[in-house]
Write a structure and sequence with these properties.
globular
Length: 169
């Protein structure tokens, strides 16, 4: 899942997101969490060393992790990070998605009052199968304890088949 955002000359911190995949071959939905090995928010975001991964393990860390972005402007989206799920061990079909929940905050207080846009994309083998954008986000602060929850609506136009070990989200 690629997460992108656009905003005026500020840096956002991405904290956590998730999506639900409904499988025809399974009795229950699968909940995926986006994990980060980035810096703890109280020590500052880490632009270079963050790696994302997607899996069904609920986060257990006691401190939120942060991911900084390069400088951005109001005309283009900048990638914050990309997380991949391990290929499936059996054939599955994605029939529906829940919305992405992401928490964002400012790197510094220079851009308090700015408006933000956040885009999320779900890719199958590198090809976008759906995306969603939440525009004109307000009220973003610098305090990581007050990170703002943003919901990005994700809808599928058709079902998506995941063919065992050949498919990567």
């Amino acid at each position: 899942m690629k997460l992108r955002r656009r905003q005026p000359l500020a840096a956002l911190i991405f904290l956590l997101g998730f999506a639900t995949l409904s499988g025809l071959a399974q009795a229950a939905d699968i909940l995926f969490y986006l994990h980060s090995d980035g810096a703890v928010c109280t020590t500052g975001p880490d632009l270079a060393a963050t790696t994302f991964s997607l899996d069904s393990t609920s986060p257990s860390a006691s401190s939120a992790k942060c991911r900084d972005s390069a400088s951005v402007n109001r005309t283009t989206f900048v990638e914050i990070g990309t997380g991949s799920a391990a290929p499936t061990s059996q054939a599955q079909t994605i029939t529906a998605l829940s919305d992405l929940h992401a928490w964002i905050g400012l790197k510094n207080s220079d851009d308090i009052g700015a408006y933000f846009d956040l885009r999320a994309q779900l890719l199958k083998n590198g090809v976008v199968i759906t995306s969603g954008v939440t525009k004109t986000i307000q009220g973003v602060t610098r305090n990581p304890d007050l990170a703002k929850e943003i919901i990005v609506l994700l809808k599928l136009s058709s079902t998506v088949d995941l063919i065992c070990v050949m498919t990567q989200l």
